[in-house]
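User: Some background: our group keeps a shared notebook of sequences we're curious about, and every so often someone picks one and asks for a predicted structure to add to the entry. Today it's my turn. The entry only has the sequence so far, pasted here. Could you supply the structure so I can complete it?
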Amino acid sequence: MKQYSLFIFDLDGTLMDSTVGEKVCYTHALNKLGYKFNPKDLNKFLKESFKTTFERFDDGRYKYSDFIKAFSDEARESMDDNTIPFADTRPTILALIDKGIPLCIATRKSEERACAVLKNYGLYQYFDHIIGEDSVIHNKPDPECLFQCMSYYDIPKENTVFIGDTPNDMYAAKAAEIDGIFLDRNNECLNIPYVKRMTTLTELLK
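Assistant: Of course. Here's the predicted structure to add to the notebook entry:
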């Protein structure tokens, strides 16, 4: 694999398995808003922006800010305790750190919650910068979060890579003009822009 000088990771679905927490969060948040949640739609919702999900349910009763608040409030209750690292996360991160490669995270979680989850599993100290949804004006697929990570280093774009598990992650990488590696844990083989497709994080070390 190409040798990179800066690795930027998505969090949920990439480094952390939040499937159980996401299901609880979406169920409770949508129910509180008076909408019915079909668990079969979860994977679809996780691969799109909150704005797109809001537009699916928007019937004029709520503003987008109300929708976001409902999810943020519920996430504090249900997400963090139901989010764990994937089995390949720690060994991959430690191997990259041993090589002296700087690591960052760009996530649609809030920075506070992302840091809390990482600290719970002793992973926080391995990342130089964590850019959450509250750190940017525009969320992925806008590349703002990636530009923020890159701004801390004098590393060329061609030596920077973003690893994520959703189409929005890959579109953000393309917009930032950096390589995007699609972590396809569910073997979906989506038709999206990426330079490489992987099914496990440890493939980054080959």
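Suggested note for the entry: DSSP finds eight helices and eight strands in the chain. Strands lie at 6-9, 16-17, 84-85, 103-106, 129-131, 160-164, 179-183, 196-198.
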